[in-house]
Amino acid sequence: MIMEAKTTFESFTPVKWAAPRQLKNTTFVPQTRGSWDANSVIVFFDLVVYIEGLIGVPDPPTLISDSLKSSSLRLSWEGSALPLPYLVFTVQRRVFSRTSQWETIPSSSQQPLNTTTFTVQTLKPYTEYQFRIGWILANDFPPYYSRESNPIETLPKGLPNPPEITSIQPISNTSVSVTWLPPSQPNGRLIAYILKLRKLPDGHIIIKEIPISQNPRGYTFTGLQPITNYSLEISAQNVEGEGGTAVVNFVTPQSSMSNDISQKPEPKLLLQGIRDVYVQHLDLLLDPDVYVYNSSQNISAIACHYKYKWVFIATSEGDIIRTGLINNQNLLILRKDRLDLPVVSFLAVDWLHNQLYIVGKKRQSSNWSIKRCDLNGNNLITIYPYLFEKPIDFAADPYTGYLYWVSPSSSTQPNRGGGGLFKLDLNSDEFVNGPYPIPVIEGQDLGPFIVDSINYRILIVHKSRNTVLAVSLDGDITDIRRNTQSPQFENALSIAWYSGIFYWTTGQSVVIEEYNADQDSYYQNLYDVAKVHQPCTRLMVVHPDLQPIPIPMAPPQRVQVIYGQTRARVSWRPPPVISGLGTFINLFVPIDEFHLFRPFQLLLLP
């Protein structure tokens, strides 16, 4: 049959297209040129199909050694073992991607190739390509393609293109979040992104360099001035240097919060004693303590929901009780047999979505677990069951969208690593195979912390350095108490923060800062805890500013209006997702408090 095929190809040049059919027992007798009839064309096409079956799927092209450059390379491939005198080739390429389309590379003569090597030009540096060869068995017949090659990456050369800024939006009057996409042409291995923020018109430049190892796609600038013009430049850096710059200008909004102190309630300290919970003035010398709860059992954890004026209390027996911050009406919301955590160490309230988080030791296990229920103790589920040691501290913050905790530095595996500060997206449901905690700070001698929600940062005690660090959600770390005289942070069990001043307990004492403006220094005043309360293991400031309600600073997107004679339909979408915050805050903030409306609403026109 091979000889028959050879005779056919040597005798005829096909010029027509015909529908394929199976070649069975048809005998094709060679004819002279120019004497084609319809049946001959059909039979010839069947012969082509038969030959394709003999060839099989051709092997992919391969890279010729030492031909790879930043913008070109040379390919070779095996031809046919069959004598096919009219066989020619085309070469196709595509960027290595599931969505990329194949494109045919024209030869210098603009004609198919009759050789089995080809030089590919005009490639992009540091880019992966795939190639395949089209076999053309006869004129006017579609190419018969080989298998695609393995990805081939061109050599790096040149500086990267600018990143693409996808959004920039305020998240408060002093904070702005920016997101971006990587350069379309990095031209080499990226090392870092460089962000340059400048106050217009002639302010100093703040430079932030983010290593590519952090896989950054966004960043949040804090500490800005309200109603102020800024310019932001973003560039990428590869091994050859810093590339082109993307620039965007923006204006921070005015404050949406009232500055009238007279309208705000007075802050109070809520303290956890050994068998009681009590409230005191921030100046411990002014008012006597007021009991919120007394118990015959030891108290292991407390939390407070300010809006509802509720305090949640965990007892040493493993029960969870809810009482009023003012009226002291006690209600057992979770019994120990249902909670199934013999030891409860931490409670935390999600004040936006009305959830209670519980951290406790699992029964007949050395692990600790995070559970969640509503404020009535219903809908109890396990969020994360793999804390290998008791955390040093724990908090829930729906404003930033995360759970936070500190694992001891001696911890062997809080999440495939050592101790440190970790966060877990509040949008984590009942744990199956993830998500896993994200390390914020790893492997340091950390102590208790509080979340400064409004400023999108965590304020955390560093025990061995005897100071407090401010840690942004992007991982920036600043020592904010270098100017403290005789610091006493190393023994803190629990820490609170209000209006720039820290409060903490050592068990036997409560320590309060005092700021001396003339010396720009902090001093610390120590107050002994009454014996009846010792040890005082936890304290917090109760005030609405510490459980803030987020207000959208960015406008809604894709606003559309369709008018009728007496009505109009208005549609819109929520503001863009804020980079660096948990998805829970971006997706599930209550409508009545976040001032978002339903996607469609009818308006009556006058």
TrEMBL record:
Gene Ontology terms for molecular function: kinase activity
Domain Fibronectin type-III: 57-157, 162-256
Keywords assigned by UniProt, alphabetized: Kinase, Transferase
GO cellular component: membrane
Gene3D superfamilies, per database record: Immunoglobulins, TolB, C-terminal domain
Official protein name in the record: Proto-oncogene tyrosine-protein kinase ROS
Organism: Orchesella cincta (Springtail)
PANTHER family recorded: CYTOKINE RECEPTOR
Domain of life: Eukaryota
CDD domains reported for this sequence: FN3
Record Pfam families: fn3 (PF00041)
